[in-house]
Predict the structure.
Amino acid sequence: MSSLEQLWSRGKEFLGCEYAIMGGAMSWVSERHLVAAISNAGGFGVIACSSMPPELLEKEIQATRALTDKPFGVNLIVMHPQLEELVAVCKKENVSHVVLAGGLPSKQTIEEIKSYGGKVISFVPALVIGKKLIRSGVDALVIEGMEAGGHIGPVSTSVLAQEILPVLSQEVPIFVAGGIARGETIVSYLKMGASGVQLGTRFVCASESIAHPNFKKAFIKAAARNAMPSVQIDPDFPVIPVRAIENKATDDFMRKQHEVIAKHRSGELDKESAQLEIEHFWAGALRKAVIDGDVENGSLMAGQCVGMVTKEEPVADIISQLVEEANHFLAI
Ligand SMILES: Cc1cc2nc3c(=O)[nH]c(=O)nc-3n(C[C@H](O)[C@H](O)[C@H](O)COP(=O)(O)O)c2cc1C
């Protein structure tokens, strides 16, 4: 029988932390306080760079270092217009692990990070892409299923895990994300070959998270069924699915799509402008909810496991609960 220690030893070694639990980068939420708290509690915090300019990222990295001497990572969105400069900041600050999200990273970006000794972690949406990413030199992969909060793909975590872990887990460490809220689930994925896990939703209501009290309250109140993907109403106007707790903004977004598409059909708006209006609807919406606490008009990005978030509690308690559940499950 394997111990938890053995099951996630590869992940722990790769991340350089006590528990192979990554705090998934969450825009606006995963800043210095939450990231440092996760790393200080033995997990692995990851700063969400999101749309930050390079100067702000540099400050955030330095501020996080002031709060923890433990390792942490930085999550960069590959379509950020200043990606090269952001990678240069990671290089300057000698960031040990860079997570590349929001698309497939170029070979050049991967090489640039590896050239200064940084480890590259990339999201993998399908087996064939995982193989390609490993050939391009990524050091580890994250499988993120559609149960997750925020931008999601179409496939569930359990299916991605079955498709990818048996084939690729010998090659590089793989971390599983999406819908994980308990230790038993962590053990299941580790037993299937994962090296560790990544959790987002479970950490939003941590006492150290700077998310507005209204945002946390919405999480504590919500059930799994309230965290739904955004809906596209017309095949000609694609909407990238984002899983969030349904609120007034969800309904307004449907109305907006109908209104803009009708304007396009009547010749009032060209297709490109209509698509842009739809895309711009959510601009700044996560900030509005997380920072300003506007839970009606902002975006309440959350995963399906939001139903298992029942109170505000310190990160250390969340992590020790997960570890306790995992150990208990292993002992049965
Ligand atoms: C509020 C919120 C914001 C997020 N922002 C990002 C982001 O900026 N970049 C990213 O790669 N993933 C982002 N994610 C996904 C998380 O990093 C993580 O992979 C996901 O939350 C894991 O699934 P779970 O929510 O079921 O735990 C976000 C998730 C949430 C809930």
